[in-house]
Amino acid sequence: MSLELMLASSIVALLVILLPTLFLLSRKLGPSNSGNKAKNSVYESGISSPIGNSESRFSAKFYLVAILFVLFDVEIVFMFPWAVNVRELSLFGLFEMFTFIGLLLLGLIYIYKIKALSWQ
């Protein structure tokens, strides 16, 4: 048996034994959540009794706006290295960045055209 296989099997065996033991110890030694009504009651933003069901469905618009935000926010990450190396990239780098920003602008125009951000 190779040394790497022995090491990997011993790590797996250790995790199989150690993790359940730690969970059981934390359950036995940790504080219990006994029937204290004030401690177990819901409290959110100053409201002690919430209104409505917590399992209500959200509109897909929320998810669409979140995905679009992440999409356009990640593009900023690509602009930082360009801004740092703009002098070394010269005219070709400038043309590439204007092309990149132009594609982003076309995407934003498309999003406005299909009214993806309008709330109705």
Describe this structure in words.
The chain has 120 residues and is mainly alpha-helical. The chain has a domain at 59-120: NADH:ubiquinone/plastoquinone oxidoreductase, chain 3 (Methane Monooxygenase Hydroxylase, Chain G, domain 1, Up-down Bundle). The protein is 70% helix and 0% strand. The chain contains four helices and no strands. The chain has helices at 3-29, 37-40, 60-84, 86-113. Helix 3 (60-84) runs antiparallel to helix 4. The chain is flat, with a radius of gyration of 27 Å. The model has no long low-confidence stretch (mean pLDDT 84). It is a multi-pass membrane protein. Its EC number is 7.1.1.-. One of its GO terms (molecular function) is quinone binding.
First and last CA, distance? 66 Å
Number of strands: 0
Instruction: Report the helical percentage.
Output: over 70%
Rounded radius of gyration (Å) = 27 Å
Strand content: under 5%
Output mean pLDDT.
Answer: 84
Point out poorly predicted stretches: none
Please, how many helices?
4
Helix-strand category: mainly alpha
Sheet having the most strands:
none
CATH class of the domain at 59-120: Mainly Alpha
In CATH terms, the superfamily of the domain at 59-120 is NADH:ubiquinone/plastoquinone oxidoreductase, chain 3
